[in-house]
Amino acid sequence: MTHQDIPADHRTQPTIRILLADDHALVRRGVRLILDREPDLEVVAEAGDGAEAIAMARSHDVDLAVLDIAMPRLTGLQAARELTALKPGLRILMLTMHDNEQYLFQALKAGAGGYVLKSVADRDLVAACRAAMRDEPFLYPGAVTALIRNYLDRVRHGEEAPEQLLTPREEEVLKLVAEGHSSKEIAELLFISVKTVQRHRENLLHKLGLRDRLELTRYAIRAGLVEP
User: Measured between alpha carbons, how far is residue 193 from residues 137, 168, 186 in Å?
Assistant: First the structure.
């Protein structure tokens, strides 16, 4: 890659300091070559297993950990959980040869911001590192498919999505509040008492951590319940 090929914003940014952990020295060398040829990326520490990765994170100033999943002593998944607790600001990418949904979900739960297959590391890893530092998730196309399939399966089995904070009735009340209806009007529209409407409004404010009607309206716009 020539200087001209590098996006302008990567030429001026501080170097991303990377901890690389993989139990195969040959793989580490190959991955390091991919990363170190980029002007904004630098491998500053290497580890041969998860336990050593944690030790390196303690002794080195690193921004990003690139961890192989399958390693002796501590796996990359176990190390990711430890590192997330040890250094909350540290970004983590999982590097693996396994196109495995179970590993993918475990990696995301462990705090990883991306999941890169070794087979396409030369194509995806650099972009994944930069995405991680922007707090953007990086997943290969098959992983995105797996996530969507998992979500749809949960919906079909009647499991509420974690982000579904409100009951259908609370959503109805919120929408009408945001549209400017009074408690009396909402009561008449939903065939409930004014007292029940007021209780729903109090629950909405408490559940969403909001203070007043204006904030409820802004939330309803963000949630797609009303148009701005």
Answer: 45, 17, 9
Q: Which residues contact 130 (CB under 8 A, 6 or more apart)?
A: 10, 16, 40
Q: What is the largest CA-CA distance in the chain?
A: 72
For the record, the structure tokens of 153 come out as: 């399966």
pLDDT in tens, 149-192: 776 776 676 655 545 678 888 989 999 999 999 999 999 999 99
| Cα angle, residue 210 at apex, residues 206 and 213 outer, rounded to 5° | 110
Amino acid at 159: E
Handedness of CA 129, 113, 23, 120 (dihedral sign): negative
Residue 47 CB coordination number (10 Å)? 25
User: Which pTM does this prediction carry?
Assistant: 0.62
CA–CA dist 107, 210 (Å, integer) = 33
Strand stretches in the chain, DSSP E: 16-21, 41-47, 64-68, 91-96, 114-117, 138-139
**Contact of 203 with 169, CB cutoff 8 Å:** no
